[in-house]
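Hi Y.,

Following your request, here is the sequence exactly as I used it, all 374 residues.
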Amino acid sequence: MHILIVASWYPTPENPLNGIFFQQKARAMVRCGHTVSVIAPEVCLRLGGRKSGISVSRVDGVAEYRYLQRNLTPFWAEGVAKQQIPMVRKLYKQVCKDNGKPDVIHLESARCAYAAVALAKKESIPLTYTEHYTGIYNSKPGTFLDRTMKLAVENADHTFLLCSAMRHRLNPAEDRSSFLPNAIDFSEFFVKESPQPFTFCALAGLRKIKGFDILLNAFAKVHGVFPDCRLVIGGDGPEKEALVALRHELGLDDVVAFPGSISAQKRGAFFAGNSAFVCSSLTETFCVVVIEAFAAGLPVVATKCGGPEDLVNDTNGYLVEKGDAAALAEGMIKMVETRSRFDSEQIRKDAFLLYDESSVVRRQLEISERLTRK
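Below is the corresponding structure, written out as tokens. Let me know if you'd prefer a different format.
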């Protein structure tokens, strides 16, 4: 089967972690014996020295087709979506020339719904859809984002749902939807004995929505109870300077580290070197890093921000209210006090059964194959 993935965002040399789970899923499909093409139209205000136009690469068996174009309608979301339609069409023609006509189109996020739906209709190809964009949760009725989401749901032959909160938001037909989590390659992660002193870790882009300011304020309370405790926050982003300043203001310079961006190849080692993971986000559609923590045998303290509510339970961690430093601190303190009750090997085994990429991808492909036979 030939799967065409329409990616609303995708890794670039400048930002290799942007949409990396799209890329990892595509490679997993190839390992299952299928042909996979990815098209990624990028409309941006500034090219930043990059060359506009189409570029093609093949990495680990995945044919990747990118189209970079300057934004002709700045600050008008619908204009961007309309620009993507001919871009996707041109990329599709190149895909067909190189790899043949796809059997199914899979849309990763409704931000490319205009183009993907138009293509699927014109070519009479089944369309599947997964929403990953956290902004969907807060999009108001009638806004462009809300309309594109509805366009994707109404026209998709099957919608894959990352969590219960996403089902409630998208509200797809029961007979044309199913839960399908994000997945990871468990072979890249390993269990290691919890270090001393007790060390929490967090990992994400340093953005407001990740709640790292709340985490630092919470950790100040934890540090007051357990002075030897440590915190490592991996990642980079626009909030780094403010977070470093807050660390200093709270007197945490010696116990909180910001090691910067953690590459895909180093994530396993990052998690294995810590005692527990913390997700302080305000909104998450799924939260792949929680699964990565489980793969390394780490218990998790996570906010009730969407995705983690389906992932975290009594056997692998604690859930706390989002946006509340006191509640997060309470959960973290409880984790330090009760870490010994969590079985790292069992956490990994339980997570493997649900989130290993081979089994998750097979479930998606089974539905895709069923659609092609209709």
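The longest strand covers residues 35-44.

Thanks again,
Q.
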